[in-house]
Design goal:
Blueprint lengths: L3 H11 L1 H12 L2 E2 H8 L3 H13 L3 E6 L2 E6 L1 H24 L7
Antiparallel strand pairs: 1-3, 2-3
Length: about 100
């Protein structure tokens, strides 16, 4: 069953720029400069989105000299994906069993 925290996480991921950031970070750890180059977003806008992603637990930071690198926390997304996989399995079983509630 999805929780309110799951719903919050889905709202975070529903933003196109944040989803693009997550997609990029799934492939490699990047600093803000790389993310600006890849997304074309303004630095302040990107920083605001990264803050939302950090606070939601989707990304974590790693200071490296004067730069901050961002990386995806796969366990955060895996937990949500697992709940959707459970939905899919339940739906599959329901379809196979032709389970439906009778109308009054």
């Amino acid at each position: 069953m999805l929780t309110s925290a799951d719903a919050d996480l889905m709202r975070v991921l529903a933003d196109p720029l944040r989803l693009r950031i997550v997609t990029l970070l799934a492939r490699e750890t990047l600093c803000t400069t790389h993310l600006i180059e890849e997304t074309g977003a303004k630095q302040t806008n990107l920083s605001n989105h990264l803050k939302v992603l950090r606070e939601s637990g989707i990304v974590e930071t790693e200071p490296c000299g004067r730069f901050v690198y961002y990386r995806l926390r796969p366990e955060a997304l895996a937990a949500l994906a697992g709940r959707f996989a459970d939905f899919a399995e339940t739906a599959r079983a329901t379809a196979e069993n032709n389970t439906k509630r009778s109308c009054p």
